[in-house]
Design goal:
Length: 276
């Protein structure tokens, strides 16, 4: 057996191809942004049982990645949908640039999604910046400071899992105020940590969905009506779009008092609140 110098470190790998990219792609019909998030998030929790997590030390980290990924998808979707619905947001975002590749891929009807493909949404700063910069929706500290802070911790853990093989990088360790260790530390996501992680991500997403809906209802009731492009004959259609965009059918299936959470009751309360 004749060895080359390279053979001493590892065997030569076999050449392979992943094949057609389209083999990995499946066309789907997307529900509302919040329902898509909830379904994704709950499927992760259902799979991440104590038994499965104990069998594989990497599984918890992968499910954590899935949780942040679901949140990023939600933020892209809800910001895109709001841009299409809200004239104030469209005016704010009019100067923004989008990627040509995204326009070519999504086509005219869905090109708005390209506005956020260059943003990661894997940090609290990116979320706050995009919300204010594209929607003129500032995230108030009184509501968002806690949820954003917890989400940021999850994102720092995610960074170590994605980019450092599960070992916590020093920069991220300092950011989350982890104590110092004499040896490298692996991010070990057990059942309890996975539950807390998904709950932290849930808290931010659900809070954002609630607060942005409230802001859009206020704009529908006041700000949109003061614009030159307001069409009074289409006010019900405009509200229906808001309702379909923000309502979480998945969670409302089991909520106490769900029979009272109808579109009609919500619309009546908005009109009463803003004296319409």
């Amino acid at each position: 057996m004749t060895l080359s110098i390279l053979d001493y470190v590892n065997a030569s790998p076999s050449s392979s191809s992943i094949g057609s990219v389209d083999a990995f792609l499946q066309e789907i019909r997307s529900p509302s942004p919040i329902d898509a998030y909830v379904k994704h998030s709950r499927s992760l929790l259902e799979y991440g049982t104590p038994h499965r997590l104990s069998q594989n030390p990497h599984l918890g980290g992968l499910l954590l990645l899935g949780s942040v990924s679901a949140a990023e998808a939600y933020f892209r979707s809800i910001l895109s949908a709001t841009l299409e619905t809200c004239p104030i947001s469209r005016q704010v975002a009019a100067e923004k640039q989008i990627n040509l590749g995204g326009v070519l891929w999504h086509g005219y009807s869905e090109f708005r999604r390209s506005a956020f493909e260059h943003l990661s949404f894997s940090s609290k700063d990116e979320i706050a910046k995009a919300s204010k910069g594209y929607l003129r929706f500032a995230l108030k500290d009184s509501v968002f400071e806690g949820p954003l802070g917890e989400y940021d911790i999850v994102c720092h853990l995610r960074h170590g899992i994605v980019h450092n093989g599960g070992i916590l990088p020093g920069r991220n360790a300092v950011k989350i105020q982890a104590k110092r260790y004499s040896e490298p530390v692996r991010i070990a996501v057990n059942f309890a940590l996975l539950q807390r992680t998904v709950e932290a991500v849930d808290t931010l997403v659900l809070t954002f969905n609630r607060e942005l809906f409230g802001e859009m209802c206020r704009r529908w009731a006041i700000d949109w009506r003061q614009r030159e492009d307001w069409d009074a004959s289409a006010e019900n259609k405009a509200f229906n779009i808001l309702w379909d965009t923000f309502v979480c059918k998945e969670l409302n299936k089991t909520r106490p008092g769900r029979s009272k959470m109808s579109r009609g009751r919500c619309l009546t309360q908005i009109k009463d609140t803003y004296n319409l």
